[in-house]
Design a protein that fits this description.
Elements lengths: L11 H5 L14 H6 L4 H12 L3 H10 L6 H17 L2 H15 L3 E5 L5 E5 L3 H22 L7 H14 L9 H12 L6 H11 L5 H17 L2 H7 L8 H16 L4 H18 L1
Antiparallel strand pairs: 1-2
Helix pairs in contact: 3-7, 3-11, 5-6, 7-8, 7-9, 11-13
Length: about 280
């Protein structure tokens, strides 16, 4: 995870963000750049994964198909790659990254028992299931940023509305475009949550994943911060308690240390700014 074990070599996909023919779907000054590229995203990723477990269809797909137990860092890196490419890449790269994920989802199908005890089929590319994943992501990243981040250009509604474009790239229908719509959709989804043994197993794994030793203490703080930042109804569904120690403050201090060590700009944003500077320079010639 960024910053917990010192600088890491830039992966090839980050370097590739320097290439491209436009600013992307968002660009400098956007709410998406401000939120998705900020340090609170380190906590938001954990918060999003916790929330996503509450949908029995999503949980069935993870249980049946995901390799997160065997390769948690690889699974995390794949998610980070999609988020950063969609946020900071040019339009072709963002569209291509979303299409790649959709192709991976094509074989992820199966069945599950819903909260009412009825048998249901699922597909990872089902529009309703994709909307739940998108909503949980949006809620988590916005919530973490409001707690630990800086100003959002245009405010929270602007972020929700802008990030709806990423949902469209993934085939999501009726993605929320305001905080009010997001809250209403989250409430409707969680009314059918199924916090069963699969959720317990996933939360247990997320609490203590098999990370390298040098990452464990930092991750423990981030997990506690994610759990403490969740609204109480979600914590109750997940069987989580707010830590007895000041996890919100400890997380803020840890993010401050990472910021001092590595700066506030992600390698993806740096690559995107280089691309945009090149484009502006070529237009001025």
């Amino acid at each position: 995870m960024r910053g917990l074990a010192g600088p890491r070599p830039r992966p090839e996909w980050t370097v590739a963000l320097e290439q491209g023919d436009d600013e992307g779907f968002f660009g400098p000054g956007s709410a998406v750049w401000a939120v998705n590229g900020a340090l609170p995203a380190m906590v938001a990723g954990i918060r999003a994964l916790l929330l996503q477990t509450l949908h029995p269809g999503a949980m069935a797909g993870v249980h049946d198909w995901s390799r997160y137990r065997q390769d948690p860092m690889g699974r995390l890196d794949g998610t980070v790659r999609w988020v950063m490419t969609t946020s900071f890449g040019d339009r072709a790269a963002a569209t291509g990254a979303s299409a790649f994920v959709s192709r991976l989802h094509e074989h992820v199908t199966g069945s599950y028992v819903d909260a009412d005890g009825s048998d249901q089929d699922y597909s990872a590319n089902d529009a309703e299931l994709l909307r739940w994943v998108h909503d949980a992501f949006t809620e988590a990243f916005l919530g973490a940023h409001l707690l630990w981040g800086g100003e959002i250009p245009g405010g929270p509604d602007q972020y929700v509305g802008e990030w709806a474009r990423a949902a469209e790239l993934m085939g999501v229908e009726n993605a929320p475009t305001s905080v009010a719509e997001l809250d209403a959709q989250m409430l409707a989804f969680t009314a059918h949550a199924k916090p069963d043994e699969r959720v317990v197993e996933a939360v247990r794994f997320l609490r203590r994943p098999p990370l390298p030793k040098q990452l464990r203490l930092g991750y423990r703080v981030l997990f506690a911060g994610a759990a403490a930042s969740l609204p109480r109804p979600y914590r109750r569904l997940l069987g989580l308690r707010r830590p007895w120690w000041p996890a919100i403050t400890a997380t803020r201090l840890l993010l401050g240390v990472v910021s001092t060590s590595l700066g506030t700009e992600t390698p993806s944003e740096t690559a995107a700014r280089r691309r945009i500077s090149r484009l502006h320079a070529s237009q001025a010639m």
